[in-house]
Amino acid sequence: MKKMRFDILTLFPEAFTSFKETSIIGRAINSGLLEINTFDIRDFATNKHRSVDDVPYGGGAGMVMSCQPLFDSITHVKGLANDRAPVIFFTPHGKNWEQTEAENYANNHSVKRVILLCGHYEGIDQRIRDHLVDQEISLGSYVLTGGELPAQIFMDSVGRLVPGVIGKEASHQEESFSESLGRNTVEYPHYTRPDDFNGWKVPEVLLSGHHANIEKWRKEQCQDSASN
């Protein structure tokens, strides 16, 4: 059974403490299906103040994360295992993250470890992106204060698809953006007991026990994500 390992380079390792202990991800770590390690980029700074940023060449507002601590931290983490773990950087310049990409990482048995680089400030020195980053990922057309939240989203979307992490594999085989429902489709509505709550009733077809009609209703209720 595949085990997926995430090595995270960050200025704020504490941002992942709760993430690693909570719900499905926490249980998957305890069961050995997932492994999440954090590395503080400041630990690799060679100056006495442990500084990891500097002013940008050419002027402008903000600071830029420097080459040296990024190079040394990435090189160190890459050397922890004899593999070709890709280095992923989260940036608005990257390719939009989609369900198919998450499935590829979860199902590709040749990729058992990924290195996630969390940027801050105005970004990182372009030379690190040019020479050490293998894939750049964007979560949408907006800007965040750092890469920690995107890293958590990446790990959650991939980790939940690793076989064994979710008890019933069918739970993610028929869900929004899955192949079975259509890649651009969001899932049908869900209901549970009671069938009448405050006068809000469950659709009769779901109570009928007629599986063909239920399946037909569910397909009709699926929506094109572009229409939302």
Please characterize this protein's 3D structure:
The protein is of the alpha/beta class. It has 2 domains: 4-159, Alpha/beta knot, CATH 3.40.1280; 174-227, Trp Operon Repressor, Chain A, CATH 1.10.1270. The chain is built from 9 helices and 11 strands. The protein has helices spanning 17-21, 23-30, 67-78, 99-107, 126-131, 148-159, 170-173, 204-207, 211-221, and strands spanning 4-10, 34-40, 53-54, 64-65, 87-96, 113-117, 135-138, 185-186, 196-197, 200-201, 223-224. Strands 2-1-6-5-7 form a 5-stranded parallel β-sheet, sandwiched between helices. It has a two-stranded antiparallel ribbon with strand order 3-4. Strands 8-11 form a two-stranded antiparallel sheet. A hairpin with a 2-residue loop joins strand 9 and strand 10. Helix 4 (99-107) packs across helix 6 (148-159). The two termini are 37 Å apart.
Gyration radius over CA: 21 Å
The succession of helices and strands, N to C, reads EHHEEEHEHEHEHHEEEHHE
Strand tally: 11
Helix share bin = 25-40%
Report the sheet-strand fraction: 15-25%
CATH superfamily of the largest domain: SPOUT methyltransferase, trefoil knot domain
Report the CATH topology name of the largest domain: Alpha/beta knot
Number of domains: 2
List unreliable stretches of 5+ residues: none
Q: Helix/strand/pairing class, anyone?
A: alpha/beta
Instruction: Trace the largest sheet across and list its strands.
Output: 2-1-6-5-7
**What CATH architecture of the largest domain do you see?**
3-Layer(aba) Sandwich
How would the global form be characterised?
A: elongated
Which class of the largest domain in CATH terms?
Alpha Beta
Q: How confident is the prediction overall: mean pLDDT?
A: 91
Span from first to last CA? 37 Å
List the quaternary state of the chains.
single chain
By DSSP (H or I, 4+ residues per run), the number of helices equals 9
Main sheet attributes: strand count, strand direction, barrel closure: 5 strands, parallel
